[in-house]
Amino acid sequence: MLRHTCASIMLEAGESVVTLARWLGHSSPAITLGYYAHFMPEAGDKGRAVIDGLLGKQGELHASRNSPHSPQGR
């Protein structure tokens, strides 16, 4: 019980699954994910935020290239 509680708290705090798998002695992070993935509900949100940020920046770059005020757009 203490092992499961500790692992759950560590994942909720942001510890990587790979590191946690090593600490728990699992042969693969996939095993760790099988037991503890439900403790990581925000994991998709972090990745989505990174992608949104990258796409937003690229969108700004594309818009500035097509702008009549940019050297490429003239």
From TrEMBL:
GO molecular function terms attached to this record: DNA binding
Lineage: superkingdom: Bacteria
Record bears the keyword Iron: no
Residue span(s) of domain Tyr recombinase: 1-52
An individual GO BP term: DNA integration
Protein name stated in the entry: Tyrosine-type recombinase/integrase
Keyword ATP-binding: no
Keywords attached to this entry: DNA recombination
Pfam families: Phage_integrase
